[in-house]
Amino acid sequence: MLVGIVGLGLIGGSMGLALQNTKLIKKIVGFDNNVSHCEEALELNLVHEIVNFDDIKKCDVIFLAIPVDAIIETMRNLTDISSETTVIDLGSTKEQIVAKTPQSLKKQFIPAHPMTGTEKFGPSAAFATLYNSGVVVICKNKEIEDIHLTRAIQIFSHIGMKIFFMDPKEHDKHASYISHMPHALSYALANSVMRQENPKSILILAGGGFRDMSRVAKSSPVMWSNIFKQNRENFLEAVKIFQIELEKCRVMVENEQWEQLEEWMKNATTLHKIL
Amino acid sequence: MLVGIVGLGLIGGSMGLALQNTKLIKKIVGFDNNVSHCEEALELNLVHEIVNFDDIKKCDVIFLAIPVDAIIETMRNLTDISSETTVIDLGSTKEQIVAKTPQSLKKQFIPAHPMTGTEKFGPSAAFATLYNSGVVVICKNKEIEDIHLTRAIQIFSHIGMKIFFMDPKEHDKHASYISHMPHALSYALANSVMRQENPKSILILAGGGFRDMSRVAKSSPVMWSNIFKQNRENFLEAVKIFQIELEKCRVMVENEQWEQLEEWMKNATTLHKIL
């Protein structure tokens, strides 16, 4: 099986490395609009070869590991591929990507979202075990041909992923709570400190809690503003729900309602019974 | 040197373990209002012996590792100790504790805050390396006698801590940004998900980012509502600053101002150049 990966950053590069550790794949080729990414990916052995976009089209499986708007754009340039080629996108949003899949690709296009990643990006961020033990959401639908779905399931399971099937709408709503809104919190937390008079003297005191909460604020602004854009309505809803919760806390502290505050905190701790 | 630890949870218990690994201390005794904590602490060898509060008063050094309101209360019961005993508090707030230190204790009382901890609590949460490589803030002032300050510095450095001196007001302001407000965000994030119709189906998708951001929402509600109470004004200020940042983000997404959003995110990423 010949695999082509479009986008050789953290997601695409790690896929290249993970696939090399399976017995499924004969050869992995890569493409990236950014020439220095291509050179770096080759140096780091993320893929076996760098090819042009026309050669990507000849692969048995094509992974799209690029920002979510670019996925929609790139699909339009894949309408002339063989019906035997499986196209798998790895983007963080699903509803718009599914809605905008060209009709001629629908039988062979697998909308997928591996719920894994780090705050780092670019080829140097890639590592072989990123997907291992992670969860991947596949937005299965009746239009997808069984041969393509089977192939995707096989690949994801061989790189160690736990597969969940979900409707694109449901995925985007859930992802807004579990991933997209929390990224906004982390960026806002980082900005809250950076806009203080002397952030350095504050950051000297940073312990594990602050480091953990601000970690994802290192993530790629281009990629994440793109995700907020595609999942705008769910994102706005999740942020509003969060704002209501935080304001409850602020008001309880302002009004010195300590017992109620403790109850509110106790309710929060129940999360970890099911997480 | 005989050390007494009041409060045998994560902070006090870890102090007991860390001190046993230094050559400074002959014997460590412990006291906790909670009898089962005492039994557990002894079983886990966090201290050499459990004593009553009157015996704690006879120690050379007394650590107060209890919620911040209890620190203020307990200091009132320490006014009859020898002037040669050093009292060190390990609470997360400093301004009120310093302001409410009984006059007779001021020469021998060291207000300290180790900027380290985990979301776990109770004796079983204690571990020997909690303090190793962490930062401790000491609120030095002219009233403290040199012998007591020297002793505290010696102890903290021997358990591997990096010492910063800071004014209590400055400490509480900084701590509100770096620790207290972020805890409120984590609790609010956890509540945002828990109040959804089916939190389990959302949490199935949780990756590392969400786990990191919701981790401190496991922390003790009693301890943390107490901290918010003692650092109320700084906390409210830090929450307000955060709310402004998050609302900026929400409005940019609502108004589809993607370039401005990217700039806002880019500003956030600069945090990690100095963290």
Model description:
Two copies of one chain form a homodimer. The first copy, chain A, is α/β, with parallel strands linked by helices. Chain A has two domains: 2-166, Rossmann fold; 170-274, 6-phosphogluconate dehydrogenase C-terminal fold (Orthogonal Bundle), CATH 1.10.3660.10. Chain A is built from 13 helices and eight strands. Chain A has an eight-stranded mixed beta sheet with strand order 3-2-1-4-5-6-7-8. The mean pLDDT of chain A is 96. Chains A and B meet through helix 7, helix 8, helix 9, helix 10 and helix 11 of A and helix 7, helix 8, helix 9, helix 10 and helix 11 of B.
Q: What labels describe this entry?
A:
homodimer; Rossmann fold; 6-phosphogluconate dehydrogenase C-terminal fold; 2 domains; eight-stranded mixed β-sheet; 13 helices; 8 strands; 51% helix; globular
| CATH architecture name of the largest domain in chain A | 3-Layer(aba) Sandwich
Number of domains of chain A: 2
Biggest protein-protein contact in the assembly? A-B, 92 and 92 residues
Global mean pLDDT of chain A: 96
Broad shape of chain A: globular
CA distance, first residue to last residue of chain A: 37 Å
User: Strands of the biggest beta sheet of chain A: in what spatial order?
Assistant: 3-2-1-4-5-6-7-8
- The CATH topology name of the largest domain in chain A reads Rossmann fold
Given as residue ranges, the uncertain stretches of chain A (5+ residues, pLDDT < 50) are none
